[in-house]
Amino acid sequence: MSAGDEIITPVTKPEAVSMAEIHAMRGLTDAVSALGRQVERMNAKVDDVRERVIKLEAREYERQIKALNDRLSAAFKRIDDLEGTRDQQKGAKALVDWLRQTAPWLLAGIAAFVAGISIKNGAGA
Length: 125
Description:
This is DUF1515 domain-containing protein. Keywords: Coiled coil. It is rod-shaped, with a radius of gyration of 51 Å. It is an all-alpha fold. About 90% of the residues lie in helices and about 0% in strands.
């Protein structure tokens, strides 16, 4: 209704007070509804921000985990290299120990073989 379409009718004071209260309550209801919609929008924004923070944290944790995995892989490679070197050293030490233990027998066998050949060549001549 526009201002020119209003009709003024006489009402009693209690009716006027009731109408004023109803009008005020409708205004309050509209204001509360508007605030409720604002709160819902803010909640949606907070949820969006929360999701973004979670995604950022997840990406950071993924980067940290990848860096740790890379470091762990490098450490395992280093351990494998060191174990390989240790095994080579053990093998070389075992060979030296074996030669040290068998060298006198081996030299005696070679000397006997050479002596046998020398005797055979000397006896046949």
